[in-house]
Specification:
With 370 residues, the protein is of the alpha+beta class. It has 9 helices and 19 strands. Strands 1, 2, 3, 14, 15, 16, 17, 18 and 19 form a 9-stranded antiparallel β-sheet that branches. It has a 5-stranded antiparallel β-sheet with strand order 5-6-11-9-8. The protein is globular.
């Protein structure tokens, strides 16, 4: 009897040790569930939070990875140690007469930490406003690197300076002559950054088309009645009348999607799933949550009359799977790997950090084509 008890206790202690190591190591799903489509088996869908035609499902996790070695774009710009300027050399986009690039900028990361860039994060100023083209990680270093971007301000191509700064939007010119790049926006408080709506992000990271990005920016501004002389996407984020409507939505949601185990969200507008954003741990999610929420709210406001269509829980859960389809790609850099899965209606992206003892899934994003 004592032998059986000892064996049972040994098995129990091994199980406890395994659970303990699970909480500090990069989260790993079982191979069987990953093959079936799950990205992480430990992700669970919480109860939905609704405001108007916007529905947000929190995503919780029982295991996560630390993110102390990462810095966000907003944090890097605020520190002054992330510098972004116009690029005057050849790139993948059309080159202007003065040598600057529409679709390429120059970035230097002197923060001493790995910089996270999310597809759709907005860079305001320079010769025209841009958004980051895809999820990526930039290691610290003294040398500048090329940064792929898409333009979200079709009608401007000049500025008095190509330097990068940070100002609240109230201090930024909305007309030709903006002085420098700014991490503008009210999504995360004064001076915090902005990120494009899920529909615009999809045109950048999945469709990979500058013309489709411009078209969706135009459609969004038209739907929100926030058009500007230069077709700037920032007009929708800075409009005071629209801001009041946005705050009503945000106030009903922002504090209800919190908790020590919340790592992301699945989002629906008018009963249609539009996006999923899930991060490596709760701390990293909370650093992005305010500006992500603002982008979801603007998506909801631009979708027309509010519909109270409900989302089936099984459909929302399925949005945490990789998109199914034949087309897939993988781009591996020195410190990260970005894996894309694409179907006719959706695309999903996994950003993995490769420099640790084991790969860490920093960000999972899924967007619907609209």
């Amino acid at each position: 009897m004592r032998v059986r008890t000892a064996v049972a206790m040994s098995i129990l202690l091994c199980g406890i040790a395994a659970v303990g190591s699970w909480s500090v190591r990069p989260a790993e799903a079982s191979f069987s569930r990953v093959r079936a489509g799950y990205v992480r088996a430990e992700w669970k869908l919480g109860m939905p939070v609704t405001s108007g035609n916007l529905t947000v499902f929190p995503v919780t996790s029982s295991a996560w990875s630390p993110a102390n070695g990462f810095i966000t774009l907003d944090e890097g710009l605020k520190s002054g140690k992330v510098v972004i300027t116009e690029l005057g050399s050849a790139g993948r986009g059309g080159r202007a007469r003065d040598g600057a690039e529409v679709n390429t900028l120059s970035l230097t990361n002197k923060t001493g930490r790995t910089l996270i860039l999310l597809a759709g994060e907005m860079l305001i100023g320079g010769k025209q406003d841009r958004i980051v083209d895809e999820d990526q990680l930039v290691p610290p270093g003294e040398r500048p690197v090329a940064l792929g971007v898409f333009c979200v301000e079709h009608g401007r191509w000049h500025g008095a300076s190509t330097a990068f700064g940070q100002n609240p939007p109230a201090q930024r010119s909305q007309t030709p002559g903006a002085q420098n790049f700014l991490a503008g926006g009210s999504g995360g408080g004064a001076g915090a950054g902005q990120i494009a709506t899920p529909a615009i992000r999809e045109k950048a990271e999945a469709a990979k088309s500058q013309n489709e990005v411009w078209s969706k920016v135009s459609d969004t501004n038209h739907s929100l009645n926030t058009t500007s002389g230069t077709g700037a996407l920032t007009r929708a984020y800075d409009d005071r009348t629209l801001a009041k409507k946005s705050q009503v939505y945000e106030s009903r949601v922002i504090n209800r999607v919190q908790g020590k185990d919340v790592v992301g969200v699945v989002v629906a507008v008018n009963g249609q799933l539009v996006a999923a954003d899930v991060f490596s741990n709760p701390s990293l999610f909370q650093r992005y949550w305010p500006k992500l929420l603002k982008s979801y709210v603007l998506e909801a406001l631009s979708a027309g009359p509010a519909s109270h269509s409900e989302i089936e829980r099984s459909a929302a859960e399925a949005f945490l799977y990789r998109a199914e389809g034949r087309a897939s790609s993988e781009r591996q850099k020195s410190v990260y790997k970005l894996t894309e899965h694409k179907s006719e209606g959706d695309a999903s992206f996994e950003l993995d950090y490769l420099k640790g003892a084991e790969p860490v899934l920093v960000h999972f994003n899924r967007v619907a084509s609209r």
